[in-house]
Amino acid sequence: MAQRFNFTIHATDGKARTGSISMLRGEIRTPAFMPVGTAATVKAMKPESVRATGADIILGNTYHLMLRPGAERVAKLGGLHSFMNWPRPILTDSGGYQVMSLSELRKLTEQGVEFRSHIDGSKHMLTPERSMEVQRLLGSDIVMAFDECPRADQPREVIARSMELSMRWARRSRDGFDSGEDHASRAALFGIQQGALHEDLRRISADKLTEIGFDGYAVGGLAVGEGQEAMFATLDFAPDMLPQDKPRYLMGVGKPDDLVGAVERGIDMFDCVLPTRSGRNGQAFTWTGPLNLRNARHAEDTGPLCERCTCATCATYSRAYLHHLVKSGEILGAMLLTEHNLSFYQQLMQAMRDAIGQGRFAAFAADFRRDYQP
Amino acid sequence: MAQRFNFTIHATDGKARTGSISMLRGEIRTPAFMPVGTAATVKAMKPESVRATGADIILGNTYHLMLRPGAERVAKLGGLHSFMNWPRPILTDSGGYQVMSLSELRKLTEQGVEFRSHIDGSKHMLTPERSMEVQRLLGSDIVMAFDECPRADQPREVIARSMELSMRWARRSRDGFDSGEDHASRAALFGIQQGALHEDLRRISADKLTEIGFDGYAVGGLAVGEGQEAMFATLDFAPDMLPQDKPRYLMGVGKPDDLVGAVERGIDMFDCVLPTRSGRNGQAFTWTGPLNLRNARHAEDTGPLCERCTCATCATYSRAYLHHLVKSGEILGAMLLTEHNLSFYQQLMQAMRDAIGQGRFAAFAADFRRDYQP
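Predict the joint structure of the above. Result:
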């Protein structure tokens, strides 16, 4: 029977886990990579092509969608799934990260964040309650608590104050989410651990979130410039503080080698703009590392992007053709590289799921690191 | 048995004709619309999607391809069909039009045109012989004679001198094409009638071309700013001067109402950037006329672009969603509108072929003009 939210761990290998999340709109295999569909589209991709790469769930950005086309308008038009023709699960972020990085003239208070749209300068307010309402209007399947995400390099007391604020907002997010009863009966709510690189702050945050209770828990506040070494050092302890039986989501990560290292440390879900953005910038990911298709060495190379890749781009087009498209600024270059990159990411996730299921994740990770040049 | 080039007229209705061209790489149903694939890609479309719209043949631009990636390079990589994954017929223009409109520092002599690339300033020479060689290196199925295309509003003596030059170049094109024996045994060569709006010059041009002998004949020098009325006035006589049993190709045309009026006057083939370029600019063609998707009146319209259209965009997406994509500058907007526009153009061609075959073209054209607001 279809369920609102059920996470089952099928196998573990070290700290790595593989499983599945059952939701009303479909199943999500974990570890999962969620392509980013910022403005109700995974850029340069049709939704059926996104699905064909192996994606079970995509991410939508609350900040962008509330400004354009507007949450009330999306609701009026039947919700985000119908609007963009993606019938499967959608996770929406809370808007907290983008409002601090993209908006203009923002003002942060206990209540929330007042800001001006980067699109048209219009004035808006995001609070935990309004974020829950926007995500409900969008019809989100996995709703993220509203939080503040500070830069990791700020003084400890700034990080601590911000984390405490995010925990109060987590409580208000829980209440706001629960008050939308019909939506709450169909969707899930995730809390977000903060505390940057500080183990004690991460512990306080995890305890607070667990006390409130969520369907899943994100590790927030990483991938904000601290570097892979510091991120991994934090992931050595932060996921362990979160409930074992709930999915753990590392927000905004990352490069292929980030994903392998994070799965190794117990992460179940990821989102990142990297495969889509890189695809539009002429960069392709392969099992041996990223390739820059602008490079003249590809101009007469009749081989595929990646020998081991199973995607349609690699089956059909040469590096020489992709080089030509990228150099010519052709949209088809963005389309084909995005499709390859998303497919590569999903093949990487499937390879990790298989390796964990077969108890050989350490060997997989060692092989990956041997071949992959970041 | 597969043939190099065979044009069969299946039915006529007034001056309108419907038929098919058999070539080694496939059949072309006429009247035919050829999507433009300037730089070895029909912009924002995968080749299999171009085919799915109903296109039997596409056009490639000699000027662009000789500059980037270069004709010798395309030949080395196996030819244009393999390079861009379009296994069906390709018509290439001669480069004559683009070299005069896009290049820099050009110098026109009896020999040809010397110019500098608009991409990198490199120096090149296009002559009838080099144009034939470039089109052979690309692996073109329908090769166009190298001509000069003057603006129609120039003095009669300028038009006359230009036409005479183009006829001498047509002879040299024929000889150049025939000298590439292996390619000539698999491809076809079309001549191009010039003479702008002057009936006597068009007659001289047609007679000269017919004397040389070509597989098909283009009406050139129109759609260069003269307006639909003057174009139709010229098409009232120009196509009749060309051999009845060969296909007639109106270059660079046009809007849906241009196509209907030109088929009515005996034209069999068309190419135009309009459906693709418009698609990237937020414009969609429908049976009631063009729509600007930027217009705010579409913002909450849950209906399709076009009720009668059978394309995937119309089956799947609302005007509201397309409006959102166009306003947001999303690549998917260009992709979906291009696909719709190309599909609409092919549906229009199919409707014309059906109407001619059933002897009701006049009624079709009258209905079209009643409903279509240009």
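Chain A touches chain B at residues 39-41, 43-46, 68-69, 73, 76-78, 83-85, 280, 299-300, 302, 316-318, 320-321, 324-325, 327-328, 330-332, 334-336 (CB under 8 Å).
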